[in-house]
Amino acid sequence: MDATVKSVQPLDAAGRPGVDIRFRLPGAGPKRAIYVSGDLSNGGFNASYRDWLSSYGGSVAYFKAASYLMHDSGFSGIRDWVLGNCRGVVQDDSGIPLHYYDSSQWDLRLHGDYKAPIELFTKHAQPDLRAAYDAIGGGPPLPFGSGYRIRPDEANLLIAVKR
How far is residue 13's CA from residue 36's CA, in Å, rounded to a whole number? Predict the structure, then answer.
C-alpha cells in the first residue's frame, strides 16, 4: 500500500494491552489503526472497556479468523456493541453472522466466495450467507486469502456500512 508508518506506541485500553499505529497513505491524510488484546467474552467485556471503545465512536471493526466467537451467545456483548456503535465492519465469515445485520440499518457488500467454514468450525456454517452469495452470483474475486481461507479462490469478505 506504500504506507509510511509515522509512529507505533503501546497503549492501555482500560487495562488491556494494545498498540496505536499512526501512518499515512500516498495522497491521503493521517490514518490510525489500533490493535488491542483482551477477553471479549461477556465476562471480560466490562463497562470500563466498553467506555474506552466508545471514546472511539464511529470506528470500523475488522474481524478475521475470529474463531466464530460472535456466533456464540457468550460473546453477545461485543457483537451487540459493534453493531450498535461502529460505522462499518470488515470481516470474513468467522465474524458476526450475517443474520445479525439488519438490512434496514446496514448496506452489505460480499467479496470472494463462501462455501463453508473449515472443518474445525463446521457447526458455524451459514446457509443464509451461502444463499446471499448465490443470489448475486458470487462476489468480486479477492486477490488474496483471508482468515482461515488463505487461498484467494476460497476467501470471503463481508463489508458492512451503517446507513
Answer: 7
Residue 29, pLDDT score: 87
Helix (H) or strand (E) holding 52: helix 47-54
Q: Is 134 exposed, middle or buried (0-12, 13-18, 19+ CB in 10 A)?
A: exposed
Domain ranges, residue 51: 39-162
Cα 89 from chain centre: 5
Residue 57: its pLDDT value, please? 75
CB 159 within 8 A of CB 90: yes
Based on the fold, state whether residues 47 and 11 are members of the same structural domain.
no
pTM tops 0.85 = yes
Contact status, residue 88 vs residue 57, Cβ threshold 8 Å: no
DSSP string of 8-38, one letter each residue: EEEEEETTEEEEEEEEE-TTS-EEEEEEE--
Q: Are residue 47 and residue 107 in the same domain, yes or no? A: yes
Query: How many whole angstroms separate alpha carbon 96 and alpha carbon 75?
Result: 10
